[in-house]
Design goal:
By secondary structure, this protein is mainly α. Helix content is 42%, strand content 6%. It has helices at 2-23, 30-50, 80-91, 93-96, 114-117, 124-133, 159-169, 182-191, 201-205, and strands at 135-141, 144-150. Strands 1-2 form a two-stranded antiparallel ribbon.
């Protein structure tokens, strides 16, 4: 019985010793606490500087002023070349390539293309129609024959995006042509709202050539100078 009591006492002593060993462990280093606080402060400052005020429209292309003026006033319209390049990279480059040179025998080039630049019988309305409704069958570009298909993008891209991507390809890689406007795209879209099939070269050639300048676009109002108060004569006795 004494032996059992001694074993129980020894076990109790071990438990107490272990408990004291746990409580006597070294506390967390002060330097570690300081380091954690510095990291938290630095992370908070970085988030504050790059969060854009946690506004939902910080990266909204329709609200960003591309001019970089920083005037605090109304945002300038998005640069169509910037928006157009983004749309092109996402939807067109896989076939026409980032260089705009296309793939020989498969996808026609956009560089110097009479379709893109609206030369000969080709009109701005034709290239807009192709982007909106797609294209299929034989086509001749810069004297070379192609026979492939292009997907329609009208159900995916907004008028402003179609205008931007066409403005981009018409003024990139040495191309030079007037910008396509959203209003022009909307007009062409409305003319063929019921169309469900991709265009062919023969069909487009039968449609009268229309240029973007021929469509009336509402002119932007000229900025008016702020009214100034009439000068007053400050001469004594006046």
């Amino acid at each position: 019985m004494d032996e059992g009591f001694r074993e129980a006492e020894l076990a109790s002593t071990r438990d107490v010793t272990e408990m004291h060993a746990v409580t006597e462990r070294e506390p967390v280093s002060v330097w570690l606490i300081v380091l954690i606080m510095i990291l938290m402060f630095g992370g908070g400052m970085f988030l504050w500087a790059n969060s854009g005020g946690f506004e939902a429209n910080v990266y909204n292309a329709n609200a960003v002023s591309w001019s970089g003026a920083g005037s605090g006033g109304a945002a300038a319209p998005p640069d169509p070349m910037v928006v157009g390049k983004r749309v092109f990279t996402r939807t067109c480059a896989v076939c026409h390539q980032a260089s705009g040179l296309g793939v020989a025998g498969q996808f026609p080039p956009l560089v110097g293309s009479e379709w893109v630049l609206s030369e000969d019988w080709h009109g701005d309305n034709h290239i807009v129609s192709i982007v909106l409704d797609g294209f299929q069958g034989p086509v001749t570009v810069k004297g070379e024959a192609y026979n492939n298909a292009m997907a329609p993008w009208g159900a995916i891209l907004k008028d402003s995006e179609v205008a931007a991507v066409l403005t981009y390809v018409r003024n990139e890689w040495g191309n030079e042509a007037p910008a396509i406007t959203s209003e022009f795209v909307a007009e062409i879209r409305s003319q063929h709202a019921d169309r469900r099939d991709p265009w062919t070269q023969a069909e487009l050639q039968s449609i009268e050539r229309v240029q973007v300048d021929a469509v009336a676009v509402p002119a932007a109002e000229a900025p008016t100078a702020p009214e100034t108060a009439p000068a007053t004569d400050s001469t004594p006795g006046a």
